[in-house]
Amino acid sequence: MPRAVRERQMLDAAVRTFGRRGYRAASMDEIAELAGVSKPLVYLYLNSKEELFTACIRREAAALTAAVRAAVRTDLPADRQLWDGLRAFFEHTASHPDAWAVLHRQARAVGEPFVAEVNELRAGIAAFVTALIAAAAREAHQDPELPDREVAGLAQALVGAAESLAGWANDDPTVTAREAAATLMNFAWTGLGGLMEGRRWSPPR
């Protein structure tokens, strides 16, 4: 079997095990058995449990980032860009719950150096959202001079809210990805005041 295919099997097994059992409780024996390979082969390919976990974080972070970026079309209105990005985020985290558990819970719980890997993912997504918010403000006000600090702060708040909401949605099977995306879109685009007045942002069908 080609090395890339075998390594993908190992990472798939590792993400599932780490996501469900946690980094400390997961064993290399369990991961090897789930992948259908010997434990020495896992060590041969990925050297150590720490490097295996790091490889899982990097792969899943890249997949999540790619899914969000691929969903956003810059030729669409700003609100549609934000909606498509949020929907892609929640669809991906819902479809890959073990991967999201690794990124959002396990890596942070274990601490360094894994937190640094997750922070890099977060910084990349926050930069992407910052650009979306800046574009939305320009579209709304026709003003290229925007307070960069405020835009960056809004992006951080939105990313943090999305992370928390994804964790809540994944813990509650009755919450769909579209519902989670609509909840955050309403909060971000319409605002709490607008929601209290009964106004909603209507997602495209």
Task: Give the biggest beta sheet.
Answer: none
Number of strands: 0
Unreliably modeled segments: none
Please state the overall shape, judged from the principal axes of the Cα atoms.
elongated
Q: Which range does the strand content fall in?
A: under 5%
Quaternary state of the chains: single chain
CATH class of the domain at 58-196: Mainly Alpha
**Mean pLDDT, all residues:** 87
Order of helices and strands: HHHHHHHHH
The third-level CATH topology of the domain at 58-196 is Tetracycline Repressor, domain 2
Percent helix, as a range, is over 70%
List keywords for this structure.
elongated, mainly alpha, Tetracycline Repressor, domain 2, 205 residues
